[in-house]
Amino acid sequence: MTQIVEKPGKPEQPDPHIEIDDDHYESPAKDLFRRVYRFFHNKFVGLALILAMAILSLLGTLIAQAPGGVLDDPTSAQQWLDSIRPRFGGWTNVLHFLGFFNLYKSIPFLTVTALLAVSIVACTTHRVPLLWKRATKPQLRVTDGFFLHARYKADRTLPVAPERVEAVARRALKGRRFRVLEPEDGRGINLYADRYRWGPFGTAIAHASFVIILMGFVVSAFWGLDTHVNIPVGTKAAVAGTPYEVEAVAFKDSYNEDGRPIDYVSHLVLYKDGQQVAEQQEVRVNEPLRFEGIKYHQASYGIATIVSVTEGSTVLYDGGVALQWTSRDGTNSLGRFEIPEQNLEVIVVTPASGRSGSNIPAGEVVFEVYPKDSNQPLAVLPVAQGSTAEAGSLKFAFEREQQFTGITVRSDPGTNWVWVGSALMVFGMFMTFVLRHRRVWVRITPDGAGSRVRIGSSEKVDTLYEREFGRLVAEITTGKAQQP
What we know:
Blueprint lengths: L27 H13 L2 H20 L11 H15 L2 H8 L8 H30 L7 H6 L2 E7 L3 H14 L3 E3 L7 E7 L5 H23 L1 E8 L3 E3 L5 E12 L5 E12 L2 E9 L5 E3 L2 E18 L2 E9 L2 E2 L5 E8 L4 E8 L12 E8 L7 E6 L2 E5 L2 E18 L3 H19 L4 E10 L2 E8 L5 H15 L7
Antiparallel strand pairs: 1-20, 2-3, 3-19, 4-18, 5-6, 6-7, 7-8, 9-10, 10-11, 10-18, 12-13, 13-14, 14-15, 15-16, 17-18, 19-20
């Protein structure tokens, strides 16, 4: 592209009354800021960060992500890691340490997100002053060489006085919604015209929209809710981190002829501080129960055991235990619950449905009672359905088996940020690609009894603009310019 430059003037002489310090001093902090700023507005740094973000997002798709809330509990986390260990082998612990099983909240992802946001801000603040100068203080005068080397150019001689050509040129430019300016001096008649001078600011708006969208993801990652709760049918379960409880009134699953599930739906009732606040009879994967910005999605289902633990007349636990894990050999199903008053953790083990090889008889469960933070059981109690077993002063009862429904609970407080950012991105792209900044320079000089007209524009290759420029030249240089 031809560079447009102003005609050099006489060098400005320094004021003899001002003392000039040749050894310009810049504080170390300011110098460091400049270096960091230059680093982040470098386009190659921005491209590298975008590539890193793309790679991490791809890894988040390829690597199994832990269900919400699973990694918050050490026991649940270990059991989940054991379930995926056959797939990742020795890399399982490494990926867990790096946070790749919860990648969108991991340090690498958040670091790249923060650096990319800083890079976008640096690029935007670096570019905006240049855009502002071009919009408010445009280059009104160009050299004669510009009209020789401009991408779009025309040079015509007309048998018309310069003043009449100028009038036609102004009408033609203004008819195409160009703003027309004229420098104060210069050889001949010089016109500068531009249209949509604010269009290039669309790139700044689009850049800002990226930052807003990234902020939306960060807000959801830190202040959003993403957890999972298993609710045996006919019971309630608390939603961790909220004042809500969810009751599964009913659950229904449907299968095709091959035995594959085709639909599963829950009837949920939501309670807040003990009071019913919402109810939805059909909750599916894509039809959640919504209340106060939180969505309750159907996610899974399975078998639970209804058990109780008492100490004398005191009930320490009474409810369902979802058998949501499988033993390493696949023969048993496992669930767990805690007895905080006794600082105990209890593992409930039953034979896995449809599998053989378990050493536990059908219709029976085994209670494995552990002190917290210990792998040595205090007691291992086999209990038949409808029976009890004792361990010290504690009595364990196995009442029956029951279905459970798995509900994913999510809230995304960053959603509004993402919507705003997306709207700004569309608007910024519209400004950038539709309201393109067009600039035209016209020089009209006397040539004998007529005029010489030179028209130039340094825009990028654009077929539509090339046609428009040709029509503009025709309007100025054809018969229209020769009208009295």
